[in-house]
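debug: dumping io for the single-chain case to check the tokenizer round-trip. Nothing else runs in this session.
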Amino acid sequence: MVDAIDGFAEPVCERPQPQCTCITTNSVRNFAAMGNEIDRFTLSISGAPPTHYTVKINSFSLLLKNSVEKYESGDFEAGGYKWKLVLYPAGNKSKNVKEHISVYLAMANTSSLQLGWEVYAVFRLFLLDQNKDNFLILQDAMGAERRFHRLKLEWGFDEFIPIKAFNDASNGFLLEDTCVFGAEVFVCKERSTGKGECLSMIKDAPSIKHVWRIENFSKLRSECCDSQVFNSGDQKWKIQLYPKGRRHGTGTHLAMYLALADSTTLTAGSKIYAEFTVRLLDQVQARHIAGKADFWFSASNPESGWARYVSFAYFNKPGNGCLVKDVCLVEAEVTVHGISNAL
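debug: decoded output
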């Protein structure tokens, strides 16, 4: 334990005392490893669910199918700090992980902490065995503390579980394409909030197109113009156009965005993963301009797009087909691949 920092209480960890069956390290050495930072861990089994946070994922295979390399859970509180789970369904490529799922605990919302902060924590990561209705628990051997600080916000397991073992139905971790992860964190005095979330990926998600006809374009005076509301993936959307530009594109480019029509209707912690294309249709030669992206939409981040979508010079040039008889056509194609909601 380090000495106390001025104005910052020295953490005193309350070590968890779970009712569990411990499994010897040697028998599971090939099962998981704590990155390059540690070569010892404790694997145990418990019938008690995680105290602090649970992440249930439906249609897990669609994370891989839709190239979701990394999923971050919503924030949860333990010991007076904010945390989140970070999951790599196909392994953490930045650490050259192969054939394993990577799972980490990360600190969240650290901007409010004072300069030079350090947090020492003991944490345990959970995976539900749905066959036996108990949890596999992985933690550092002997309950060792981990030091979180500005340059090291994340600790965990590069090779949490082999993908082959995870996919084997006899192990009970992935049944009907559904799995459950969890976390417990013990910092100073532990405080339980019991929050969680459920991520549901959508199988064979349909792509919905909406065409917006903008007439009398030269007479637009609003800073931002909204299309009619349209539906995709049980969500309401709209196209946003800034006829005079926006941000670093003001005065030189049209700005174009896809936005949630009413983000205030989302429940706290909800996120929507969508792939979308916004096209400016060429009404003469069908040489359409298209911007394509994917984004996690939420109440705090309700829009995504381009401040420099197309230059005014190209847009207004006769023969390019963008503006014909003072009319332009904008098309949005939206596919909602996943929705995360608080439990």
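debug: round-trip ok. The mean pLDDT is 86.
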